[in-house]
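Incident log, structure service

09:12 report received: a user says their structure output differs between two submissions of the same chain.
09:20 pulled the input from the user's history:
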Amino acid sequence: MEKLISQIQALSGDEADLKQLHTLLSKSEEVFFKHLPALDEVLTLLDPQTHSLGVVFILAVKAVVSVDPKIFIQQCIQFFRTCSPAQIRLEPKKFKLVCAKFTEYCIQTKQAIRAVKPLKWAIMRIQPVVDHITPQHANFLQVCIVSKCYKAGVQQIEKDLYEVDAKATACAPRDVLLYFYYGAICLIAVKQWKRAINFLQQVLSAPAVVPSVIMIEAYKKFVLASLMESGSVSGLPRHATASLQRHVKAGCSAYEEFNTSYSTKSVSDLHKCALSHHDAFVKVRSIYLVNECFWRMHSPLK
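09:34 re-ran on a clean worker, output below:
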């Protein structure tokens, strides 16, 4: 273990050394697992900025075993603040794993708000250029939602992002779906209905043999946001798959019925529908939007 620490300290320099270190660390992960109790002490010997590659390997090991969340959270905050973009981009998958576990622990320990700024740093560190979606965007937006820091989430997505570099950031299709879904939730919270609908349409237009849970949940929000924006639902996007259309009918019947009831312009019909499906709306935290739709029917937008 001491030899490995020395090599991390010695090879965290130029590009050639880092390449050599990356190969070495990839072959030495078992050493970290064998010395789990010593990893916290090892981290104190490494500088988060100078030895970022070594640190991300160690934190990734800690992310897959049982550790003290409090200590892990603090270690990640220190790491995200100063870590070297050039070094973490050599291991985007491990950085993604660390950020995901950090997010999970912060939410689990009811301190999601504490994760907002560190995850913003994490985005800046891993993002190749400012127009790229990263896995950390979804992490960031999730903690913004849990901590009700919706405006912080909306500020982060002010610029439209559509570029994805899976090799540089380890961004997977699910990360992109979550970016647009969580982004839509933040936009709904600040009543930016039109842009929220656009974000949800990105989710609903995604290619999929079998629609994901994210897509089904996005449709539910799409129905309610559309009613708030225009008083009607235009239907699924043109590029939505036939499979999604089938799943919507089977899994979103409460929302389909609510849309139908809304179109009658009858408050009593809408009220009956809302009561009938109250549990379904509460389960996925849509009851706020349902209530907003009642308000809109009473005071339609001009």
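09:41 both user submissions now match this output. Likely a transient worker issue. Closing.
09:42 reviewer note: The chain has a mean pLDDT of 92. The chain is about 70% helix and 0% strand.
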